[in-house]
Amino acid sequence: IMGILLSIVIAFFFGMVIQFLSRLLFTFDYTSRLKRFGGVWAGFAVSIITYLILIKGAKGASFLSPEMITWIKTHAWTILAMNFVFFSAIFQLLIVFTKMNVLKPVVLIGTFALAMAFAANDLVNFIGVPMAGLKAYDVASASANPLQVTMEVLKQPTQSNTFLLLIAGFIMVMTLWISRKSRTVSRTEVSLSRQDEGFERFGSSLISRTVVRMVYAFSGTINRITPLVIRKIISRRMDPSVFEAERDEEGKAPSYDLLRASVNLMV
After folding, report:
1. Mind telling me which residue stretches traverse the membrane in this protein (predicted)?
2. What confidence score (pLDDT) does residue 86 get?
């Protein structure tokens, strides 16, 4: 439990720091600055996300051989460097010739990586036991005396059936797509992390209020010891009034901008 809590604290801290630095670089009027730094930023973000997809996700992939997994892990830094150079060049060319907002593909790829991570965990929870039962059935069926067969084989690492995983994944996708509850949960999550003020469906707890007060106190201390010139520079680059949200066909603005979304997914 302490490991989970510590990972949450670390994620919040580094997320806050990287969010601050990225906003300091791009400001809230980030679209004009994407022309200069967008390619490098998007290439770096996609390279980090690719690390999660390839290197972290490869170890549990049923369609990769042990030799391929070993090769990917051995050449991890080479893959990251090549991805960074390749994607930075591609995104910069897209910015120059198509005026494309490169944060959109970053968010798309990051959403895929996040969905892959959650789906892998949920698939283990939902179909892990049935697949173990199927494995036990196969072992017992191959024996001349199924009632006397022991299940020591289940202690050994096993290769999942890719076809069954695809079926389970398809069922999961369709459930999330047509489920009203899943859409409500997604809407609630996005609403809780919105960039502007709004109606809060859930009240705050004593612990959360204490943490917020501690952060405010720490921020005030940093603000007092920071020179006035630096504070003015930061204040100008952190001005949210220059932000103009892109609205959809119904005139609704997103809960937060693409820069924040890309940083969240990258971290």
Report:
1. 6-26, 38-55, 75-95, 102-120, 160-178
2. 92
| Residue 232, in any domain of the structure | yes
- Spatial neighbors of 182 by CB under 8 A, at least 6 apart, are 175, 176
Assigned domain for 59 exists:
yes
Q: What is the pLDDT of residues 24-34, one digit of tens each?
A: 888 887 777 88
Coil, strand or helix at 256:
coil
CA 79-101-96 angle, 5° bins: 80
**Residue 40 to residue 189: CA distance in whole angstroms:** 30
Residues 115-156 pLDDT 10s: 777 776 677 777 777 887 888 888 888 777 777 777 777 777
Query: Does the residue 115 lie in any domain?
Result: yes
Structure tokens at 249: 């066909």
The backbone torsions φ and ψ at residue 59, rounded to the nearest 5 degrees and listed phi first, read -65, -20
Domain of 136 in residue numbering reads as: 2-160+226-266
**DSSP H helical segments within the chain, as ranges?**
2-26, 30-50, 57-58, 66-74, 76-98, 103-141, 162-178, 180-192, 206-225, 228-237, 258-266
SS (H, E, C) 155-198: HCCCCCCHHHHHHHHHHHHHHHHHCHHHHHHHHHHHHHCCCCCC
Q: Is residue 131 part of a domain?
A: yes
